[in-house]
Prior knowledge:
By secondary structure, this protein is of the alpha+beta class. It contains 16 helices and 24 strands.
Amino acid sequence: MKPPARCLVLLVLPCSLYAQSPEEYHARADAALESFLLKFWSQGASYLKAHYPDNGSATGYWTFAQGFDAVLDGVERTEGKAYAGWIETLFDAQNQRGWIVDYYDDENWMALALLRAHDLTGDTHYLQRAAALFADIRNGWDTTCCGSKKGGIWWNKAHTQKATASNAGVVILAARLYEHTQLPTDLDFAKQVYAYWFENMVDPSSYQVTDHINPDGTKVFWKFTYNEGLMIGASIELYRATADEQYLTNAQRITSFVAFHETVSTAYGKVLDDGTSSSCAGDCQAFKGPAFRYLKLLYDVTESPAYHNLLRSSANAIWSLARNSAEEIFAVSWAGPAPVDSSEPQAAAAVMALNLFAEASGPFPGTGRPSNQYEAEEAAISGVGIEASHAGFTGWGYVAGWNGPGQNVDFSIHVPASGTYELIFHYAGGAGSASRRIRIGGATAVANFSFPGTGSWDSYSTVAFERALTSGESVVSVAFDSASGSHNYLNLDHLVVRSLTPRMVRGDANADGVLDLTDAVAIALYLFGGRPNLVECQAAADADSSGGLDIADALFILRYIFQLGAEPGSPFPECGADPLEVAASCGAYPPCE
């Protein structure tokens, strides 16, 4: 049972301002994240850009971590159905630049993102890198400074100050690592750092959190939402790890300070606020993202309507007041007005908030794409760019700008059963024919696969080859390899992996995974209503196993669902191949793919 929700002033607003469906919130989150990746991914730097329009600079280490976290929010929100390839893309981007830096708080932001990458994928190399960063961060604990009560983690390795970011943030990391390691030393360290920081750096009357303390003992109380946000997150993580209610009470008291002192009123209610682009420059532009994140964590635990209102007001204001709809960018101030340009940190903060709130609003409605279609812009990419300027692509973009060694696109695919599959690439070859080396599971499938020219970049075509695949996960890598003859530019849109021995469930005419009245209706409309798109797998619609598709199949389904007749023949009710092996086509049957 969740604990009772406590306090915060309820933000009462007209219902019309909040009348958004979960589908709408998810659509907003998709649009924001896709715009973020299209605008801030730099092919040349293999990193995130610092600014849009591009000023030629890459974003910093800790702001890259914020962008990484925003992408992870999208992967988690969509249950891994979209954007998942970007986890490895961003990991590889940072791996090329190195992990250890001079600021402990920066390392902590990166470690938190890496730990989430592990949780979403199960890949241990993310966890190992997070643990290595944590080991370095622990070296920052010090009991020789500062002020009358000494302790805390240094902000940087030059020992210029101790900050909330390098203390409360580390509590979150240590507590989350404890969930994985179950090492008492990890939890003990989290509790040690928290106790020092809460007792000495949180005002006991207002619950404002100190930004940092200087070596001479001076405490600096700057009002930045992420200071309180981090202490809220630290409190919740220790509450989850220990079930000690005092941590939850601390989180709620700190949230009260945020609600009264770090918000601004708008038509949508109070929204998180750190100032405008002129008063909140540099790192400040990222701060509301972590604040929103840990307020949502508090809401997840308490389900308090007051916390939900603050999150919802902020998300709605971001979209309706702070958004430049033509460019799909967002202002530093979530109260608006809309900007003409954007830094990567301010963009990441808005993208985080929109994705986190969409996830809280309801289940992801799906991508609308067949499950056997893999978008190139959501694959793991190296050395290539993404674009959305030449119409005719699927998804939200395509991979472009590759014509040299070290450039590749890696699709992570899943096939339900071993067998022969057709791998179909959708692409544009505006510069003429091109070729690439294709590997499957690390082994060369085609050394120099040809993509014939399409006449222009706005003209798309498909090209395919067949290959035996083993059930489960595989990686299909499309790489430029000059030694194998790779040549010319290529825009790659998507990959479809189609079984040449289609699997289906007999009777499920509309391929929704359920045999019911809608399947009989789909067959009737397909036959008599001019709706050929309703039945893509005619073999599945052949409910009576006659070898053809006619009205008798709809009647067979009706008799079965009303318990007047026999159940369909094999394959039913589980996925399987059509034992009839007739000519009836099965263009697509997503439930079994």
